[in-house]
Amino acid sequence: MNNNLSTALKIVGLITIVMFVLMGILTFIVDTFGDDQSDATDTTEQTEKPKTTTDKKGDRKPGEIVVNEPLENDPYEELNELIGLEGVKEEINSLANFVKVQKMRSEKGLKTPKMSYHLVFTGSPGTGKTTVARIVARIYKDLGILKSGHMVETDRSGLVAEYMGQTAVKTNAICDSALNGVLFIDEAYSLVPKNDNGGDYGQEAISTLLKRMEDDRDKLVVIIAGYPDEMKRFINSNPGLQSRFNRYINFPDYTSEELTRIFLMYVRKNEYTLNDDAKDYLMSRLEEVVAKKERNFGNARYVRNVFEKCIQHQANRLSRSSAQKTEKELKEITLADLKATI
Question: Would the pTM count as exceeding 0.85?
């Protein structure tokens, strides 16, 4: 009896020791590989792609990536219906004509020169660069240059990461999302700061971008945009940029007459009306604004903001009275509404 009890106690003790050893081994494994997994998670968070917005209306926020899916409308018609930008329309139509003729030559067995479809758009804010880039993406699809015709919009903060070695990952991810379409980089010159001391990661983004433009030259078109002088400095900073971007299209500032037409377009599309006194005042004020404009004048963006503030003033004016409003009153923008805005 005593021998059996002694044997049982020894077995229980042995099992307890084995359990403690196993627990120690498991603890070691969790501590070791758990830290590695935590590090991997941290790295993933650091290189996580920025949030993507599809077909966003209005201005893109810094660092935001906007994917514009191609519309079904005729891109050539949409281009030619844009207010102003006559020189831009001529350049784009000329490029399209050249590509069409080269395709005809190729079909006849004739030689066709190699050409770059990458573009540099120069101009002030609000001059239609992003709008035209979206149209170009669809024209390129129509011409057979691109399969999709979508456009991905981004800027420096969508390409450059905060940590060493992660910018290439981030830039490659953006390029992947733009394959078979257009990658549009706004204010591209910010990838090379004016007083760069060599510690900026923008050069890593440029190197990665240039490699992808070469590796995916049949699937990726890049359009870069920004102020004329800054874009010239940017292109001249790297021989690879100079060789790949050789077609420049300048977007001039809008005239006061063109800005008036843009405002009236917003009025019409949003089912408002503008009486004659208000229209005369608008034209006069826009002439003054254009005459005194500064370098960062917003052009069409400025007019859109004026329109949005104007209809807010109209709403406030109508709300002061509890009387039932007629359709005419709900639609009409008056001189008082404009004077309260601009």
Answer: no
